[in-house]
Design goal:
The complex is a heterodimer of chains A (about 200) and B (about 240). Chain A is mostly helical. Chain A contains eight helices and no strands. The relative contact order of chain A is 0.21. Chain B is mainly alpha-helical and about 240 residues long. In chain B, β1 and β2 form a beta hairpin. The radius of gyration of chain B is 20 Å and the shape is globular. The C terminus of chain B is likely disordered. Classes of the chains: A mainly alpha (about 200), B mainly alpha (about 240).
């Protein structure tokens, strides 16, 4: 129980996925204009990464690293298998939500295709394998990481809403000032490094 | 031969992936803590880009249109796996430094973008040079950002102490490194400066009435960036629906 908590806090706050590992920069900068859309994107990322880390964990444990199948030598296929599985999974989740949970689909639907090959999803799947997490630890790591993404993108969107009409030097308008905001947030998140 | 030189020029100068198109921002931010890491990442990406462009261009008439993106992903992922193992075997120090970001070359926008927009439509030789040009442009971008961060952040360049660092203990005067530049926030700060510079250049060019290449920035326009955003499968779905 204690290691699960450490993994969750570590991946959500201490090693924040965007602010210290630079995964998923594209949606972080692209979909952070408004808090609502940012929260929607964050929610979709939480959903997809958690499911993806479970599915890739299962595939790795029972097929790729299974001693009964070619003596577990299939691990070299990890990158190829994971990226295809994640791409298909997002499609499948989208279709499933559309059919069976229309309300959730309306909230997350627009953002789902945007995450298909978001580097954070593949990044979490590969981290789980590299650190040799069990399936449960992998899912917790995925959940923590994606909640970290949610926190970061919502905070950034909040700051961007407040600073939208600020007087910024002409060259720094648009992306540059967002990047500087992200840099300051990244410095702030250093404060969490003493937590563990 | 002329098209080949034109592709090289296009990749390195006119449509430089780092400075003009702003593609592949995740590795650009993550691995440029030193010039050597930037160079290694750039060259690994170049290798994958050249090989995948070559194979995709060779197979462009065989791969059915509706299955092209999954096919491209499998080809790219295979080459990334090969590069991953070669680095692990022959340059373990670089492999340790780049870590997770080597397999993540798969989701680099530049590679799928070039496959989709150039290699799948053009003959083999120009496609190879297109990959080489783009890859070298990316390498130059990563290396120069890495040099800047390494120089400001530790006074070193390619791991050689270029500026003598101040030593508090012995009272020796010298350069006090701004360590934050080799930490995570430094990446955002350097990139912010870079984009601001690009904005300025573009404004000056616009004033003179020149047209500059339109950036397909990952940050600003996720939908147009095939690799990061995965506008991949939805495109196919639309095509299926039309059929």
């Amino acid at each position: 129980m204690k290691d699960l908590l450490i993994i969750a806090i570590g991946s959500a706050l201490v090693n924040n996925v965007v602010l210290s590992q630079f995964l998923g920069i594209c949606p972080f900068l692209g979909v952070s204009k408004k808090v609502e859309t940012a929260a929607g994107m964050g929610g979709a990322v939480v959903f997809v990464i958690t499911i993806a880390s479970f599915v890739t964990g299962v595939i790795n444990e029972f097929i790729l690293a299974n001693k009964a199948i070619l003596g577990g030598k299939l691990v070299y296929l990890q990158t190829i298998v994971f990226i295809l599985v994640i791409a298909c999974l997002v499609q499948f989740v989208e279709m499933f939500l559309k059919k069976s949970m229309p309300s959730l689909y309306q909230a997350l639907g627009v953002y789902l295709p945007l995450i298909t090959t978001n580097c954070a999803v593949l990044g979490v799947a590969l981290t789980n394998v590299q650190k040799e997490y069990t399936i449960l630890k992998g899912v917790i790591n995925g959940l923590g990481t994606s909640v970290g993404f949610l926190i970061a993108i919502v905070i950034l969107a909040g700051i961007r809403e407040k600073t939208e009409y600020n007087d910024v030097p002409e060259s720094f308008q648009g992306t540059p000032i967002v990047l500087i905001t992200a840099a300051l947030m990244s410095i702030a998140f250093f404060g969490f490094s003493g937590l563990l | 031969m002329n098209t080949c030189l034109e592709r090289l020029y296009n990749g390195i100068v006119k449509e430089n992936p780092t400075f003009v198109l702003m593609l592949g921002m995740c590795p650009t931010l993550a691995v440029t803590t030193s010039a050597i890491n930037g160079l290694g990442m750039g060259l690994s990406t170049t290798a994958v880009l050249v090989l995948s462009n070559m194979l995709i261009s060779m197979l462009r008439k065989i791969i059915p249109d509706s299955l092209r993106i999954p096919a491209f992903i499998v080809i790219v992922a295979s080459f990334v796996t090969i590069v991953d193992f070669l680095l692990e075997g022959f340059i373990p120090s670089l492999y340790a430094a780049l870590g997770l970001y080597i397999p993540l070359i798969v989701v680099n926008c530049i590679i799928l973008g070039r496959a989709e927009s150039y290699a799948s439509k053009n003959p083999v030789l120009p496609s190879v040079f297109d990959g080489l040009g783009m890859g070298l442009g990316f390498t130059i971008g990563l290396t120069s950002i890495g040099m800047l961060r390494e120089l400001i952040g530790s006074g070193k360049l390619f791991d050689h102490q270029l500026i003598p660092v101040a030593d508090m203990a012995s009272g020796q005067s010298g350069y006090v490194p701004v360590t934050i530049f080799i930490l995570a926030p430094g990446a955002f700060l350097v990139l912010a400066g870079l984009v601001a510079l690009q904005n300025r250049v573009k404004r000056m060019a616009a004033r003179k009435g020149k047209k500059t290449a339109e950036p397909v920035s990952c940050g600003e326009n996720c939908a147009s960036c095939a690799g990061c955003s995965g506008s991949i499968f939805p495109v196919e779905n639309k095509e299926k629906e039309e059929k």
